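Lecture notes, part 5. Sequence design as translation. It can be helpful to think of inverse folding as translation between two languages: the language of shapes and the language of residues. The source text, in structure tokens, appears below.
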């Protein structure tokens, strides 16, 4: 019997069986990595953070997305997305020095994590695979 297993009597003929403790089972489930998926706007933000490098903070991220896509992008949407990406472990952030132009407030700079970079690459491969389908419903993309 493995470590942490508990001998229990089965009701049929008193046969003993080995079962892991229930709490171990739930710990194993909680430790299993959840697949990470990116929505369209999350992918745009991730790609922009990668492109901007160490100077990536909310305002330039918003402006770069607007410039490259032609979409109006609210700062609040970018910050909410960055917060969500940080909770997923796809980006990390650090505070810069306070500046007089910002009324003494510091900028929060963002960087893509190793997990974030891997997720962006996986998303790219999935999109390429789907895009290369011979027949797309409704015509050619």
């Amino acid at each position: 019997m493995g470590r942490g297993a508990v001998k229990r009597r089965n009701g049929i003929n008193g046969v003993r069986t080995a079962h892991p403790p229930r709490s171990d089972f739930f710990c194993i489930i909680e430790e299993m990595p959840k697949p990470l998926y990116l929505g369209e706007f999350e992918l745009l933000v991730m790609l922009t953070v990668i492109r901007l490098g160490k100077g990536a903070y909310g305002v330039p991220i918003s402006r770069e997305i607007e410039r490259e896509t032609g979409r109006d992008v609210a700062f609040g949407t970018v910050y909410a997305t960055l917060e969500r990406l940080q909770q997923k472990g796809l980006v990390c952030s650090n505070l810069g020095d306070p500046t007089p132009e910002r009324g003494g407030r510091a900028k929060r700079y963002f960087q893509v994590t190793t997990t974030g970079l891997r997720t962006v690459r996986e998303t790219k491969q999935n999109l390429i695979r789907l895009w290369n389908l011979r027949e797309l419903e409704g015509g050619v993309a």
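The translated text above is only one of many valid answers, since several sequences can fold into similar shapes. The first strand starts at residue 6 and ends at 9.
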